[in-house]
Amino acid sequence: xxxRTILVTGGAGYVGSxxxxxxxxxxxxxxxxxxxxxxxxxxxxWGPLVVGDILDRTALDAAFDxxxxxxxxxxxxxxxxxxxxxxxxxxxxxxxIGSFTLLDRMRAADVSKLIxxxxxxxxxxxxxxxxxxxxxxxxxxxxxxxxxMVERMLSDYAVAHGLDSVALRYFNAAGCDRDGDIGECHxxxxxxxxxxxxxxxxxxxxxxVFGTDFDTRDGxxxxxxxxxxxxxxxxxxxxxxxxKRRGFHPFNLGTGQGTTVLEIARTVGRICEADHPPxxxxxxxxxxxxLIADAAKAHRELGWRPTMSDIDxxxxxxxxxxxRQTTDADPTTNSLTCPNN
Length: 341
Known about the structure:
Elements lengths: L4 E5 L4 H12 L3 E6 L14 E3 L5 H11 L3 E4 L6 H6 L1 H21 L4 E7 L22 H20 L2 E7 L1 E3 L17 H10 L6 E3 L11 E2 L1 E3 H15 L5 E6 L5 E2 H12 L6 E3 L8 E2 L4 H7 L8 H14 L17
Parallel strand pairs: 1-2, 1-4, 2-3, 4-5, 5-6, 6-11, 7-10, 8-13, 9-14
Antiparallel strand pairs: 9-12
Helix pairs in contact: 1-7, 2-4, 4-5, 6-8, 6-10, 8-10
């Protein structure tokens, strides 16, 4: 043990739970703080679970008083783009006001180090690719705006209050824990790879490729997929790094390589040994043709390089997880389910 404690808000969710495991393996004491509205208690395996909401000052105060963390990992956020357009009030309340409440109670508890789970959605439609941290940030949906607002808070709090933080801007988080302990489990599911796997494993749930007329090598959109275990490793490096630094520091997390949606569908079909061709649908409004990260800053300053993010590795770990979740309710359809959903 390194003697340090991290309090992880949203630690029962997809990326948060993988990061809890990585911090525990690195010798940190890990405390998960989650209201379980979208996370899963079964994913909390590396330390105590405090059931609480980041909007609840009293619950936060009690957690800080009991565990006295050295660092906060802040993952508690709503993260569905389409939902954020329909119900922006959910996103500004939870993601923005919740983050403000967390920062307020961190100050009261004299906790001054934080890692923030941010997103490439803060950049909006890219002016250039690959996208570096200096790229203009102009989100195109309330989800992206809510994350950018928190980044602005963190930048201002660093100057005014000495609250030091790292914002890690993910590109497309994908894959599942290589050991099979935890995985990706959303309700509803909106991520391309689990949807493609569900389509491959069942002829009742076809996978739809949205847009086949982009100016890309096969007409479908290009995205930068990063294995969730590589993301978790970056968080541990960033946690150690910010403990010795001052200020606010953003980092992109991606591979710098792009994979098309059709390539994802073909890879999933090959690994699943399935022949269920995807449906072809129209473009979705606001979908950029290409999103690829320039993660040179994370390589240079954090010493981070992805080692698990080959697209075959990503898909194989995701398929293994999804197959473990196959329900016995209707074995003829290979329907998939998630615990607690």
